[in-house]
């Protein structure tokens, strides 16, 4: 019976284990997880703080015990510290017992995820946290229980930062958002993200742009601007780095940034070593261009592909990712897909910018949606899309994702027969109109 | 300068006229409209009665005067009573002056629309109305202004009927819905539409199934069941028939049901006679199977194609229709596309039935969505889709429309990289899961 070792038991690893077991009742599966927990919905962590997820345990999809019942061996507090892919074994550190041992595999699945970045000034600050794991959540909840939080600082205006701001406000905590550059939420082009500052102001949330924390003494947070802020809690959400140091001395190929390179079956350069989750490098789905996307959709898709591949079904292949993403920020929805703005330069393109009501304009609750496409001049391919609004943004980005995946161009958007009724769309929907604009633009380019 | 005559000035005709003028500032355009108004949003009429469309005039996209300013000649109360396509002229009846004349064209665009069906018992009943035109709306509003409406009867449980029920309830009018068969809203399969009866009951709305109006005397409505209902207003929404009698003696080809047959450019069998709107027969987009879809999306798309074609741009082609449609009924959204249930027999198929929360299940406001696909056994093509829920239905039907249009199969739905964040989806979205179920089903069929 083949032995499968899985490194990391959160999203990618746990899902692969569960799928493998579903396909094959007999295969030997062991998960080594360096932390306390496995298989929880870490995207949901901020929403438990805000109260939209009522019970903490709703975030837990599987426990070591429930996996054990399905004959999946789970070793928590066990960190894989090295691998020997030629000899097909891993080195495991049993953290609680401070011992190390080797374990042999027939198939190895790497799902180490990312490590949250920190800043030096927050090291050893007792009220400073990240929110990356269920353990982090429990620490934060305990801190909020034990201490009166009059004011909190959130560091970083990315998606974790914005979600934390919103959820702390839902808990009636005063928040200051500290962001080191001029523009919040870098997945969005600066002119489109400018509304976030207005939204923060409208909600009475203090924001410090072009600022960093340089020192924390007691409850006093000192910024690089010289300002001092009183804060009983600090939460940093400033991105992750792939947790792949343990692979540095192996022959598993990593890219320059440390992400694990995989093929369409999720295999590394070793045919029996797979990788899944936030620490892999893949390619854009619509372009021959490498990308890493630390989001759950790709992890779940790759888990399916790897588990099927190991079980002998080679039909499912990973198509790469568009990086489709969305966040809610109070009343707004913000979604993008495709290339980052910084990656667009090497692709000759034009821009379609379009604002239209989300439903028939005569409906009293209609609201505007703003769509911006970056479109390849040569063939009309949609290189990048950004959509912002207060209703119906998720619909438009998902339609774009389905459309681009099957080769649909910007012009072709005119042809999508959306469901029209006044509460949902105009007869020429937002995306149809974007398509018509692209057709006009292309005609002009050819003149 | 070519002369264009357009028969019918509502959705299809008015949109074609406006587009033609936009493309060509000089072309000669005349619209003959038998009614009082042109270019109003008739899908929005019910919502003005309910109050979601605040001002009646918001429903008007263009007036005869505004078209005249753009050098589009508009003749209202002018009915085209016959055409001679070989001699390229139409016979026009000037209704107000009771005279008839001929008009010659180089291009003729037929947009006659449909005539609302009636039932004999409602003929000459002063409080009985249909809601098909802006004139109808004005009549109904005048009636509601002049008479106290304690109780209204809506006839027909199709989309107009359901929209009218909801909008009258929003006006605090007691309503009885009379529907002649066992099942409401026939676009949906009976077991999926059963909830509508529960929803009516929950809102305290009386419904009479398997019933028809046989007589109205004063305010007393007598049903085929013998029941009597007191009603100060009766609104019938029981479908339309194509208004193509004026073509019966022409050589323009109609199908058996009286719909005008057109090609991918919107042309009839005469190369200079086009047709658009509710009275045309087209083909399903995904199947070689005729269909007529009396909805606005197709009319707007065809208006674009016809106006471009007349102007010399032959690039845009009508791809046929999926019949993507949606209605809101109180808190529910109901959407379908593709074949009618009654048309499925000739296509060997299997059914995927799937219920899943619209967003991460741990979010306290997550609600279920029900998706049912009818899938071709031979190739996995999605023949028909139905989606019901209280949130996010419009997103799923639009994604399906985009997906099917570009040849995506049911299995292929697993690959759509939707935007995931807990407020919007699960990492494996509703449609992804439908795809995974289809993959399993297909595997079993091949075993």
Automatic annotation (TrEMBL), chains A, B:
Pfam families: Pyr_redox_2 (PF07992)
Transmembrane segments: none
Organism encoding this protein: Salinicoccus sesuvii
Cofactors demanded by this protein: FAD
Enzyme Commission numbers on file: 1.8.1.14
InterPro entries reported for this sequence: FAD-bd_OxRdtase, FAD/NAD-bd_sf, FAD/NAD-binding_dom, FAD/NAD-linked_Rdtase_dimer_sf
PANTHER family: NAD(P)H SULFUR OXIDOREDUCTASE (COA-DEPENDENT), PYRIDINE NUCLEOTIDE-DISULFIDE OXIDOREDUCTASE DOMAIN-CONTAINING
Keyword terms, alphabetized: FAD, Flavoprotein, Oxidoreductase, Redox-active center
Protein name, as recorded: CoA-disulfide reductase
Enzyme class: oxidoreductase
FAD/NAD(P)-binding domain span: 3-287
Gene3D superfamilies linked to this entry: FAD/NAD(P)-binding domain (3.50.50.60)
MF term (GO), any: CoA-disulfide reductase (NADPH) activity
Keyword Flavoprotein listed: yes
């Amino acid at each position: 019976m083949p032995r499968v070792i899985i490194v990391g038991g959160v999203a990618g690893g746990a899902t692969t284990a569960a799928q493998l077991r579903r396909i094959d009742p007999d295969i030997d599966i062991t998960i080594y997880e360096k932390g306390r927990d496995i298989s929880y919905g870490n995207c949901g962590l901020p929403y438990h703080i805000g109260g939209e997820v009522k019970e903490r345990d709703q975030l837990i999809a599987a426990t070591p015990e429930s996996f054990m019942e399905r004959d999946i061996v789970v070793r928590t507090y066990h960190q894989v510290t090295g691998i020997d892919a030629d000899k097909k074994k891993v080195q495991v550190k049993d953290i609680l017992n401070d011992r190390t041992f080797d374990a042999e595999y027939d198939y190895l699945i790497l799902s180490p995820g990312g490590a949250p970045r920190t800043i030096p000034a927050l090291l050893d600050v007792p009220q400073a946290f990240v929110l990356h794991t269920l353990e982090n959540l429990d620490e934060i909840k305990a801190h909020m229980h034990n201490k009166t939080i009059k004011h909190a600082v959130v560091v970083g205006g990315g998606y974790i930062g914005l979600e934390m701001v919103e959820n702390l406000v839902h808990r009636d905590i005063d928040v200051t958002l500290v962001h080191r550059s001029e523009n919040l939420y870098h997945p969005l082009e600066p002119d489109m993200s400018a509304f976030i500052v207005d939204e923060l102001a409208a909600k009475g949330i203090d924001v410090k742009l072009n600022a960093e924390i340089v020192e924390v003494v007691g409850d006093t947070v000192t910024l690089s601007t010289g300002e001092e802020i009183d804060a009983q809690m600090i939460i940093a959400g400033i991105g992750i780095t792939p947790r792949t140091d343990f692979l540095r001395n192996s022959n598993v190929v990593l890219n320059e940034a440390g992400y694990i390179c995989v093929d369409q079956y999720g295999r590394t350069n070793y045919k029996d070593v797979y990788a899944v989750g936030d620490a892999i490098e893949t390619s854009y789905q619509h372009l021959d261009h490498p990308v890493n996307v630390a989001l759950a959709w790709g992890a779940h898709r790759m888990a399916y592909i790897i588990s099927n591949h190991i079980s002998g079904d080679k039909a499912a292949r990973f198509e790469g990712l568009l990086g489709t993403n969305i966040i809610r920020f109070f009343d707004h929805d913000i979604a993008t897909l495709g290339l980052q703005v910084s990656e667009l330069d090497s692709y000759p393109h034009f821009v379609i910018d379009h604002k239209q009501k989300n439903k028939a304009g005569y409906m009293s609750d209609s609201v505007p949606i703003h769509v911006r496409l970056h479109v390849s001049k040569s063939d009309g391919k949609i290189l990048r899309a950004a959509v912002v609004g207060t209703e119906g943004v998720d619909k438009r980005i998902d339609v774009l994702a389905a459309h681009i995946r099957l080769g649909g161009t910007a012009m072709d958007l005119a042809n999508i027969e959306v469901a029209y009724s006044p509460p949902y769309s105009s007869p020429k929907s937002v995306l149809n109109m974007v398509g018509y604009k692209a057709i006009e633009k292309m005609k002009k380019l050819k003149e």
